[in-house]
Amino acid sequence: MRLASTFGKGRRQNDPMSGDTATITGAAGRYASALFELAADAKTADKIEPDMAALATGLADSDELATALKSPLVEGDAKTGVIAALADKAGFDPLTKNTLMVAAENGRAGELGAIAAAYAVLAAEARGVASANVTTAAKLTAKEIDALKASLKRALGREVDVRTQEDPDILGGLIVQVGSRMYDSSLRTQLEGLRTAMKEA
Fold first, then answer.
1. What is the value of pTM for the model shown?
2. For labelling, which of 66, 69, 81, 127 has a CA lying 20 to 30 Å from the CA of 117?
3. Cβ count near 68 (within 10 Å)
4. How high is the pLDDT of residue 120?
5. What structural domains does the chain harbor?
6. Contact 23, 180 (CB under 8 A)
């Protein structure tokens, strides 16, 4: 399968906030880069990107699915079966399905979310759009997301593709990641900083 021979050592993309570059590395980066390059060659990028976005959403919405794919207690064949069924039900492009199957067969089923996230970064960069992952303690409203996009656009000087997720554990504020840079204004970070300072005093 061509996909399996396309993996490189990673792919670099501009980090618009820092002016340097962020490297998409590791297994997730290699799979995402291979898929991105194959999609570009096949001129199916317009089909692959929504597939990967739907995969990311599905994993984020189903803790049971995400946990099963990561669990060493679930057999590899069972994982590939679930992924194949998911891809067929969602109507994924054959290239998307093949990539997910290869990843699962190589023991990377638990990294599908990371692969989807890495692909989104590559696709956004190709469109000249900055990609930002935003984590908040509570779900943002559509109005709040629009305001966040506007703020990031002003800061970066370009359009921003914002993907959001919730994590009650951050206790408040938000975490914004653009490329390799993470900006954290959560209350937890502030409290941990305070505790550290108190211990060192």
1. 0.67
2. 81
3. 16
4. 87
5. 2-126 (1.10.520.20), 130-200 (3.40.30)
6. yes
What is residue 200's three-state secondary structure? helix
Residue matched to tokens 């409290």: 191
115: closest CA among 17, 184, 36?
Answer: 36
Q: Can you tell me the distance from the alpha carbon of 23 to that of 179, in angstroms, rounded to the nearest whole number?
A: 8
Q: In the beta sheet, which residues pair with residue 160? A: 130
pLDDT < 50 stretches in the chain: 1-23
Beta partners for 117? none
Given the structure tokens 């590791």, which residue do they identify?
26
Per-residue pLDDT at 179: 67
pLDDT in tens, 69-125: 999 999 999 999 999 999 999 999 999 999 999 999 999 999 999 999 889 888 888
Report the 10 Å Cβ neighbour count for 70: 16
Q: Which residues contact 89 (CB under 8 A, 6 or more apart)?
A: none
Give the burial class of 69: count Cβ atoms within 10 A of its Cβ; 0-12 exposed, 13-18 middle, 19 or more buried: buried
